[in-house]
Amino acid sequence: MTAKHEDPATGFLETADPGAPVPERVRRRDPLRRMIALARPRTGRFALGVLLGAAATGSGVALLGVAAWMLAVAADHPPITALSVAVVATRALGVSKGVTRYLERLVTHDAAFRTLAEVRVRVYERLAATEPFGRFRTGDLVSRLVNDTEATLDLLVRGLTPPLVSVVTGGATVLVLTAVYVPGGALLAAGLLLAGLAVPLAMALLGRGPGKRQAEARGALSTTLVDTLHGAPDLVAYGAMDRQVARAHEADEVLTRVEQRDSAVLGLGAGANALITGLTVWGALFLGVLAVGDGTISAVSLAVLVLTTLAAFEIVAPLPAVAGKLGAIRASGERLFGVLDTPAQTAPAREEGLADKVAEEGSSVSVRGLRVRYGPEEPWALDGVDLDVPEGETVAVIGPSGAGKSTLASVLLRFLDPAEGCVELGGADITAHPADEVRALVSGVPQDPHVFASTVRENLRLARPDATDDDLWEALVRVSLADEVRAMPRGLDTEVGTHGTGLSGGMVQRLALARAVLASPRVLVLDEPTAHLDADTRDAVVADLLDAAEGYSTLLITHDLTGLDRVDRIHVVREGRVLQSGTHTELLAQEGWYRDVAG
């Protein structure tokens, strides 16, 4: 098995199962700390970025200080040679400021974007391992994947390097001015602490509430927009589009109001910073004039003192805006880690080699004492189910909606683990094996198969990217879809439209089955394959599905009796339990739900 190594800061398990649970002690940590910890592999790059940023900012401060000295000295009309060093220094500082600023942006942005790319990979790996799609609404999940994930970049670029640069450059500037005039250095230190520490702390506190509401409002707007787009046909059909658009406008207005409050906080921070800068410069000028008057410093030193004090506030200028955004970034971090901390619904694999075992023992499926529920306080979705799917046979599980049929399909496909009991494939417990191994042998057609906005060819190759055209046509022939595809304008290269709008309902089901067959599974799970079809189409599709399923161990999950006279055995499930079992003829002869529905 793969060795596990936990990152103590983030809780991620490196080179391990990406669905492994994150320890509770890690989940309780501040999201900002965990987001910064994501950049730990590139600590050296960010340290270099801080040094380059300090050099750039220091060059800017020194440039104004040297220029002040040069202008003050030039007022006495000295020989040009006396100013040559200052002239060269001014040019050198001007060049170094631009070069080091460029290099600082290059280094820090490169490190931040690389970190962001790793975070995106981790998010998608977590989604693939935990299947949390049912736990988040589609639009909200999109917002978490895009906006909240990119908040990591904002924090690393704006919230990590500038404060460290301020500490380095600000401390050096205070030391230099203290050497020029001690009260001036002390005054600058006080001003920088107010503008670079007190104001940002106040901005962080004021922005925490609006920031959290902004992340929530952005997620709500994204959810509303996605729901509107996906449900547009139904909304138009039922005359509800105007109400849905009004809800989208309302969500947008909420986000706008929150962003206006956030802008007000940022404006307050900028105003406070400007006020402190002005007061400090005036204070330095006042103290400097008094010092010149009593002969403590020269007029040249006064110019250096005042203009360097003014330039020094460039060091802390970005900090209030960064601090004001920390509330929104923290809220985005909470939402991001809400995905990354989502526990998997399946246990980690303990064994490998399921395909070898099935090759030796066959592809029969055995379900014994299966009990499943979706939460500790939830009722049992399946409560002691026993059934078998012998190799090469077709077994149907039938019952009303909510009987637990789809839950059985989720267990077989390793989207969900049983609380009790076991499911064996070829005599091997599937919960002991990796989900990918199980899904390579167990394929199926979900109740609402997704068709991508691409060509028929690419939708089929999703199951087997290396499939040749001959393989694709063979799969289409098997599901009785080849003639329809040949009649299309571009055959396999025909675009099927968003969500398969260019295909009929029956064609979508056949395409999904062709995709499943192309994966060369040993077991097929057909979950309500005719749920949204009319009666005529349903009969034809069921006949084609059962024809295509010949030779596989097939579990047909359905709520109606279409085609059940062709299956080998039927199990009637209600309230999570098997109430009747037998063939179509046997069940018609027994009193119970099956005969009642058939009659």
TrEMBL record:
Positions of transmembrane segments: 46-72, 164-182, 188-206, 265-291, 297-317
Keyword Transmembrane listed: yes
Membrane-topology descriptor: Multi-pass membrane protein
Keyword field contains ATP-binding: yes
Record's subcellular location: Cell membrane
InterPro entries assigned: AAA+_ATPase, ABC1_TM_dom, ABC1_TM_sf, ABC_CydC/D, ABC_transporter-like_ATP-bd, P-loop_NTPase, Type_1_exporter
Origin: domain of life: Bacteria
Protein's name according to its UniProt entry: Thiol reductant ABC exporter subunit CydC
Organism (species): Nocardiopsis coralli
Lineage: Bacteria, Bacillati, Actinomycetota, Actinomycetes, Streptosporangiales
